[in-house]
Each structure stands twice: as C-alpha cells, then as structure tokens.
User: Fold this.
Amino acid sequence: MSTRLKTIRNWFLALCMVPICDIQANPIQKKTVSEKHASVSITGTIVERDVHAFLDKLEAMKIDSITNLVETINSTNGIALRKAGGQKVQLEGMGVQKTAVSNPDGFFRFENLPPGRYTMCAVKPDMPTGVRGVCRTATARTEITLFSGTKDIWLQLRNDQITMKGRVVDEQGKGLPYASVLIWPEGAETSEFERRTVTDNEGRYEINDVVPADWLKVAWYLTDEKSLHVPGAFVVSVNKHGYAYPKESLVVALVTDEQLEPARRMNIIANGILSRTMGKDLSERKELSFPKSEGNVIFVPDIVLKKTE
Assistant:
C-alpha cells in the first residue's frame, strides 16, 4: 500500500473512532449535599439521532480534504445527535411517579426525590430512522441510584435497536423447544451485556432492543479490505440438554439496511473529496455479506444442534 493510501486509511480510521450512537446514561456529580439531606434531584437532557440531517450538512459544506472532513466530525460533539424539546419523561421508583417535559434545549429536572433507585424513560412516536421515509417509535430508558446530591444524565431516544429472530433445530430441521439462547457483544469481558431467552415449542426465539452496529464503523468496514472485525458483531450461544452445537458459537453482524444506507452515503462524501483532491477513491469490498434483515429485524440462520448419545 502506498504512503498516500496509508494516510487516507489512517484518516478514515480516525473518523470511525468518533462515538456517535452509543451514548449511555452519563452521571455527572454536579453538587454534593449532606447525607442527612432529605431529598435528591435528577437533571438531564434528551437527545435524538438524525443521521441524514447530519450527512446533508456535510454535503452542503463542500469540505475540501479528508483531513477537514475528520476534523469537522471530531469537532461536532455528539455527532448526528440533537436536543429533543417537548418530550415527556417519566420517572418511577421509591413509591414516586413523576412526569416532566423537556424544554426547547431538551433539558428536564426532577426535584425533592427521596434517595434511592429510579427508572426513567421517554418515548417519541414516528421518529425518522436511517432510511429516508421510514419512521419508528423511539425510546430512551435508564436506571439511576442516587443517595445524595444531584445527578445529570443523557437520555438518548433510539429507534434503531435490533430485534434478533431465529430458530434452534435438530439435524432433521425440527424445532427444539426450551433451548437456552444467549447473546453478547463479541469481545465483551463481562456478563453485563449478556441477553438470554428460551425457544418456544417450535424452536423459535426472539431477542429485542439490541444495540446495532455504529454506521460510521460500518462505513469504514465496507472499504477496509484488511478489517476482520465485523461492526456490531454479537456471539450467539445455545444450550439444550441432550444436544450439542458442533461449533463453539455463531457470530452475527448486527448490520441492517438502516446502517448500510448512511454508511454508504458517508463513503460517497469521502470519495467525492478523494476524487477531487487525489484522483482516487475507496471502493466497497465485494465479498461482504450480512444476515437477512427487514427494517430493524435481523433473521439469524438456523442453529442446528446434534443429538448427543
């Protein structure tokens, strides 16, 4: 690989390291009060993703180099996110139920709460997805434990979470009931991210609200011929008494059309800059394949178990 192409590769890799769609509750201790204080407060900001609005902005800027493209993305705090005003936030816990509405800057506040554990959620119907013309209900949810002072959080409305569907079958293709299905992000070192379910009478299973691949990392993966790490890869493991899975596990890439469309738009923008400035582009890898999907549902290939003696 020439020095010039290595530089392009490093620039684009830096671009893909920007965290864009995995913002979680981020507690910030704003003020400390005495443990004897009778109440606590929770403040926060609701944000929502609008990937196409962000890409429209990048296209309109007529950026003249890959370096400036990366700098533009890096300088945008919370890329592809915007503050969501007028959204209802519900809080429940410690015998308390309260509702607040975010102001135009997405800000909300709950005061005079007894110390303890709370669940907070927000819902927004008909929020645009990563595919033009497609909308879906967006949700944000988090749990907070607070014994003193005030806690600041982000609530990110997400409508891109994946539903994984599949079947566990025997060697004759018959569904196996009551098989345990466990998934976790590839490379995860703790059980915090594990999700599990049990197959029904026909061997079918469904796991909802799984965080998908980052579309910027998908953009890089589409063009990096040497990249072996599939974005959003989840390991699927199955356990059924009297049966064994011939393989240790199955790895599924949580990449749908809703991630591919903005990823490819990002590559078109980058290629336009490269073509104007260097007469080169980053072509998409031809051998790539992703699991069958429809909307935000990914259909995992049948997992075939072999009966043990």
Q: What stands out?
A: The domain at 162-307 is CATH 2.60.40.10 (Immunoglobulin-like). The longest helix spans residues 257-278. The CA atoms of residues 274 and 280 lie 6 Å apart.
